[in-house]
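User: Predict the full complex structure for these chains.
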Amino acid sequence: MQKITREQLIDQASELLANGTVSTVLGWGAGEFGYDVTPTLFKTAEEMQNGFVFNDFCGANFSKYLVSKTKTLEGKLLVFLKPCDTYSFNQLLTEHRFDREKVYVVGIPCEGMADIAKVKEISGEGISSIASDGDRIVVTTLYADAPVKIDARNVLAERCIHCKSKKHVAYDTLLGEEGDVVASARFDEVTRLESMTPDERFAFWQNELSKCIRCNACRDACPACTCETCVFDNPKSGVENKSPSNSFEEQMFHIIRAFHVAGRCTDCGECARVCPQNIPLHLLNRKFIKDINTFYGEYQAGAEVGSRSPLTDYTTEDLEPSEIFVGRNEHA
Amino acid sequence: MQVTEYKPLIVAFCCNWCSYAGADLAGNNRLAYPADVKIIRVPCSCRVNPTFILRAFQRGADGVIICGCHPGDCHYTSGNYYTRRRMATLFSMLDFLGIERERTRVEWVSAAEGAKFAATMNEFAQKVAALGENKRLEDLRCKK
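Assistant: Here is the predicted structure of the two-chain assembly.
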């Protein structure tokens, strides 16, 4: 389904490795299965020929890796960024989390990535091989006689269905064609929840959040969560447990997590992508984005380097906290 | 069996420069406000981290109110403007999760407004009492 091929990416990276522009490449490496693509560092073109992959499961946002990788690395690091990843890239630059001079960004177009959970719903478990064939994903499983062909558009990840931008906001070299900011319906689900009664909303979130196993994957993958010491690792925080002991802890964890990235979240959707329990965590972030847009004017984190997050800013005419529910769809 | 009347536990974060002095004035003027309001003094209303509010609910508070200087009167020039944005987004999120919106509140009380402080606390305590115990954000481990 992707318009750009693995070979094009390898050629581009090999050229930059050969002429000494970059010393290392951060790319997608083959995992144990065809779909669990793993972020990997490549030092040579040969290594890339052997281990580099690019397919419909290359969803990982590499921006966060730059924080730790550029610290110790000699020379420049080449990184492949999809349009949504470039927003996180800019946001991290805004927060001075890494040195721009140590990174060489190759912007790559993205046609939307697939969600393996959705693929498995159609193909069943026991996937032995997975490949792309034009617009389709061909899945061979241990239990089916013939390979299952799935239309890639039917298994798009949630965040890709509501893709907000095909435009790269940061790059050194761009492969393929530059896209544009897309009008998306990403706030529709938030609006739907807002129109429920508080009891329904509470039931909805209790149902979702009680699935949480506190693996902290949402925090670990989030490009906005780059504190070296995290509040959730503090044994005195009251929410440090590795498994939630009751419903309060689940809620508290998720409220704090979402609030810590409020105003800085670029809505890249990594939190929901990595969640092993498929909790729609991006809805919490989108709620904050929607509120910030409504209360303080449209703001897209990461759209430009150096922009000021609305929560670290103010005007004297801001809305009072008592006024936020005025005119809202009332059920309470 | 003795039946005790339900009394809500309310945590009030008061800024040192205005609202805490306002509470003091209310006391000096012998203005009554519920004894269930527990005041926590903070240097500025913007010192109140959203986790403080969640923490108060965890420890059994039924309502949390944040009091600070009127916008424009902050001792540190702009602290309460940040509070205003922060609390607006936090309260909206709590409402989104289905937590009763009457359990949280921000009120600006100056050092001269002892009467306003007492009236605000009376009104807030009444509203919270009407809601009853905080069941949705309680932590059973913290129950005595």
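The longest strand of chain B covers residues 10-15.
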